[in-house]
Amino acid sequence: xxxxxxxxxxxxxxxxxxxxxxxxxxxxxxxxxxxxxxxxxxxxxxxxxxxxxxxxxxxxxxxxxxxxxxxxxxxxxxxxxxxxxxxxxxxxxxxxxxxxxxxxxxxxxxxxxxxxxxxxxxxxxxxxxxxxxxxxxxxxxxxxxxxxxxxxxxxxxxxxxxxxxxxxxxxxxxxxxxxxxxxxxxxxxxxxxxxxxxxxxxxxxxxxxxxxxxxxxxxxxxxxxxxxxx
Length: 230
Description:
globular, three-stranded mixed β-sheet
């Protein structure tokens, strides 16, 4: 759900049809694992509903991440769901990875206790505003350099812009060889296919750390490479 335009389509569709998920789970007797690490990075309110919010008979296990909203170095997330299912997950963790770093767990626990719910949501608002500003800067750079060379939709959440390169059937060589030589770091769309060897005309650009000047320079270089490829 972090792929720019792809995610935007999913949000619109989900708002109208997400209730189908729990209904199908009930009809065919299966569980839903809702993996949504960018949920708290939605740029517009009200936020899209979750499967968990619609769960009435304990069929949804939801996973969230503190890494996206506090610090990536923490490498810690949390599960929400029916207690019997969560208890089984805990038993599995105890005989596999043990658990996430105790130190980082204590840090986050103390921080959340100090903030409370209000402080946590205020922090989320600040994080969202930061990424919204970053997103807008990347959209400006994309519109300046890639308008006639690629297609994209403004992402509704997250920290990535999903771009389709016109006239390029596979971006693997363009991104992993030519772009790298120009010090432009992007991810070719094929990396997100079930079969990563399948060709893809898409690339993913991150706006999490780059400055507007870096975004502008990167897309200028990408535009030059696309023109050469065409």
